Amino acid sequence: MTTRRVRTGSRPGDRYVRIFRPTAGKFEQDEEHHLIATEAVFERPGMSGHVERLRRFMVGARLPSAMESHERLGVVKGLAVFASDNISSSAYATEEIMRVLVLAGAGALMLTMPITIAIVLVLIVVVTSYQQTIHAYPTGGGSYIVASDNLGPLPGLVAAASLLTDYVLTVAVSVAAGVAALTSIFPVLFDERVVVSLAFVLLICLGNLRGIRESGTIFAAPAYIYLFAIFGLLGYGMMRYVTGTLPDYVAPEEWGVSEGTSALGLLLILRAFSSGSVALTGVEAVSNGVPAFSAPESKHAQRVLIIMGACFVTIFLGMSFLAGHVGILPDPTEQKTVISQLTSALVGEGSPYHYLVQLSTALLLILAANTAYADFPRLSSILARDGYWPRQFQYRGDRLAFTTGIFVLTILASLLLVVFQASVTNLIPLYTVGVFIAFTLSQSGMVRHWWKLRESDRGWWRRASFNTVGALATGVVAVVVGVAKFALGAWVVLILVPVLMALMMAIHRHYLGVRSVLTMDEVPPMPKAEAPQVIVPISRLDRAAYRAVTFARSISPAVMAVHVSENTTEAEATYRAWEEWDTGVELVIVESPYRSLLPPLLAYIDAMRASEAGRPVVVVVAEFVPRYFWQNFLHNQAALRLKVHLLSRPNVIVANVPSHLWDAAAAKEGTGVR
Amino acid sequence: MTTRRVRTGSRPGDRYVRIFRPTAGKFEQDEEHHLIATEAVFERPGMSGHVERLRRFMVGARLPSAMESHERLGVVKGLAVFASDNISSSAYATEEIMRVLVLAGAGALMLTMPITIAIVLVLIVVVTSYQQTIHAYPTGGGSYIVASDNLGPLPGLVAAASLLTDYVLTVAVSVAAGVAALTSIFPVLFDERVVVSLAFVLLICLGNLRGIRESGTIFAAPAYIYLFAIFGLLGYGMMRYVTGTLPDYVAPEEWGVSEGTSALGLLLILRAFSSGSVALTGVEAVSNGVPAFSAPESKHAQRVLIIMGACFVTIFLGMSFLAGHVGILPDPTEQKTVISQLTSALVGEGSPYHYLVQLSTALLLILAANTAYADFPRLSSILARDGYWPRQFQYRGDRLAFTTGIFVLTILASLLLVVFQASVTNLIPLYTVGVFIAFTLSQSGMVRHWWKLRESDRGWWRRASFNTVGALATGVVAVVVGVAKFALGAWVVLILVPVLMALMMAIHRHYLGVRSVLTMDEVPPMPKAEAPQVIVPISRLDRAAYRAVTFARSISPAVMAVHVSENTTEAEATYRAWEEWDTGVELVIVESPYRSLLPPLLAYIDAMRASEAGRPVVVVVAEFVPRYFWQNFLHNQAALRLKVHLLSRPNVIVANVPSHLWDAAAAKEGTGVR
Fold first, then answer.
1. Rounded to the nearest 5°, which phi and psi values hold at B646?
2. Which among A75, B22, B211, B394 could disulfide-bond with A607, CB atoms 3.0 to 4.6 Å apart, if both were Cys?
3. Which of A63, A543, A588 is opposite residue B520, by nearest beta carbon?
4. Which of B564, B593, B662 sits opposite A517 (nearest CB)?
5. Nearest CA among B108, B118, B117 for reference residue B317
6. How much is the ipTM here?
7. Parallel, antiparallel, or unpaired for β A2-7 and B34-37?
8. Same domain as B559, residue B443
9. Would A220 be classed as within a structural domain?
10. pLDDT tens digits for range A250-277
């Protein structure tokens, strides 16, 4: 430990000042005024030490800030984290289209393949335009950044609010969908689906608290198993198609699907298209998460985006193609998914491969939530950095994860799951509206971006037209989805987004206001140190009061004690006892005929404040610190209320003098009497 | 205003001390050190002023302590307050007996009158022995006082816990019963019975907040209307009996009551007796509330007790007699009460007099809760005075009512009403066990009391035998009721009472422990005032930090600033800016490689504490006070957590320097820079 007294400053009134630099164990000394805290500062005694060790066991060792670049993702883990959401849609995109078309009869299902191709084309446009976005914003170009950078802060907030809403829904919907798939394999779990869902959310939360890299490691397996299982299935199916040995599937009679085609209007086709466009969700995840990739960030992100698009398109096309040729029908009772029917038609119902496909699909659906866990906290931290969201979201926890965002996402998604009883049918109409709003804004922002660069970039026209097509396509989908799902629940999102925006703007205004009053343009010279007026409210003449008076005398010569009394006899007795104490401090008795303690005391302090004309008034509050927390209900009620009331009074400084008298050692240490 | 500087004390180091005595408006000066607060100290500006005026309108003007004796009750109001609970039982005691007897057939109902007489005899014994109690304890002899005074603290606590439980149940049961009676007159209210019940509880709460005297005034009418209506009815009935013109009531066929008598065992008779002994509830209320009567307290209380007993016995006997002779049967569907059947048989169904009886019964049942409102807060205050209950219960509010007890009773009773959906059937089994336990203990205590006085009091033997009979009678009823109702819910009470006792003993032990550590047997001379070591944690170099440093310098020459930084660049910049401030205070930078703010700061403060060997360490916390409460979520999170952690550290004094910078005037006032 280094302790040194130095004389600082040159003005009269400057004093010798002690510099205290403990170096033993908990700190390392860097230079004279600069200490570096070691991990030892986290050591805690007793119970909180155990809590701390449990926490380390759960989330892993602390990571120093310098490790940030090691915590990034490569292509393999990046694909698992950021592509899960999108690729998981391949498990049900074909089915969503068929489910709408079949309303016009089994014959209408021949449109499945054309609509699939149309969506694939939109997807290609969207992926390409996001490639451009990542290229233009190599340090991270989420919809919020692109929109606010090019279209202004308001569209940026629309994108941010839409995405935040959608990320919460993504977690709820994908976990609910995954658990639904799981309960169709293990029906015993059905009654416990809410609990199972919450357990999965907690598991993913915990994985993410360990840091994004570890969450990639933990949750990578299901994604890759799904890809291998499904590619194997589709490859086998295509082989049988080529050799002309595809089975001819016969749907159960009782589904009662009419053979012919009836009333296949444009509206139904549009609805099928909009249902199938869940295929596009998750595409923006990669561009939002660019800074999570290891260097070169944009290259890695672009590669993940391309692989993701390729995988998705292949599965989607293959699935729709084979489903059509095998003659799969969507199950109106929603018991058997299209993917399950196709698998059992090709490899046999109940075969191990059938189970593999079912189980990996279920797990991948659940892990699609992990993509939202990567993006929600990151977007929140960017919003907090820009002052639109509470500052806490900005800080990285001890595993470099954005802890606050992870917790808030977990709480909100869990609430949704409980309120909607983990029902996909109830949740899904709220989903996808937000993401398409963000898509459209981001694409439009990119058009504007290229327009601004038109002087320097010769290829701007080509790039801008790609993004224009993307903006139009996603804009149309946003409107179609919004209209089609409005009454079913999309209206909730359309109300929530403006509310969130208003909140963000209020927070921003507040932080700006605070900064403007707190910033000092020029720093006035330090005033001459003048001791403050001190008031010590005394309730009983006991050890706590003695300590308070001792402290008050140590900080100022101008000390007064005040005792509020209910009756004259007690007041007189207190005054006589006080005189015997001989503290050198005057006691004023305030008699309160209406028995209240607080109003007379506050009135006295206010009068003192007024008479001081700007000099701070220090109120020394003696506080008894009990051994157990519940005992606080038996104490300090008056002290607490006093402090709350004093908080709103400018120029009043409250000093708490605690008495830890249950602890004999602490009591001796803390008397202030040596 | 008087401000004066006097030199106090004679030891070196004593200083000139200012005595500040504001006298304008809010205080009157009594003598040199003694001010008396006027009502003006309650004046508040703005919103809280409106709240204050609303409160005065609701509960009435403040009453000074000197008014206490004026707030007492005479016989008329005392009967309304303390007898409502007991007298209201006369509305259903007969029915309770008949309801059990009829299980053995209509013939068994002939036992109604004998059982009524048996209960009346017990009641006479109990009333007489309580007369003795009041005589022996003229300043208030509730069961708790009598039991703890004569049998020891543990039986006292059994009585106290039983009574507290029972008072809460009394409020819930009587309001639920009254509202049930009300909804049978106005069936439209049935669906809203929980809300209606809560409204009545709130109304009685409000009445009691106005003080016990006003609650007597407000709630006296229903009690007296009931008495007049019921005496009129019984008188008219007796006249018709004497003239031999009593109607012969025929119960509806569909009630299907068998004519004969089957299996009328002793057990059934005992159950009928225990059901009818609800008649005894409320008898102890008067003796618990003696101090609420105006002088001579015991005379007034005794008179109320006698009148109450006489009224009750008359109604009970008359009701059972007439019900038997008219041939009333208890309605198995619980639609029509015995009292309602009797009224309609005598004066005609739906006649105005029938309505009068029904309505006044309903209101009286509700107002029986008022008796519990008189006793629960009073018993709580006595327990608080003896250190068995949180201290807050001891204080009288600005209307001299025991505000805390009133609020707590309201909250608990409301909870019960909500949980049990205001259903009398569900609540009643919990009721009456507690009251009979308390009865028995109080009677046994009185036996002991007379035994102790046997030397000086020649009539002790007579008195003691009265109380012995009372103790035996109530003890038997306690056991019978406890056994009969055990499985139905009485077990809850039998668990709750020991739990409450354990809590009371824990509170008592705690207060004793606190008193022993806080009391100073001899007061050491004041130590020489030595300035403390001060630490100012600095987060940003802004106006709030400037104010904190200014304050720190004003209370001690030993000041250090500490800045915890996440990265070296920021740390260096802060240090350079600090040097430009030229505060004369040294800044130590603590770099936190794991980004946490708190552990390094706490470790630094702990190291400082250890090096100070007992001298207090003052931590000056700059706090931004936002304009609206919700904005606190955007600020001070770190400051709050720091304060919570520092609270558990002996010898650390936290001084809050608030910045009210949103308020331009306050900002100017509060800079500390003049």
1. -70, -25
2. B22
3. A543
4. B662
5. B117
6. 0.83
7. unpaired
8. no
9. yes
10. 777 666 666 666 666 787 888 888 888 8
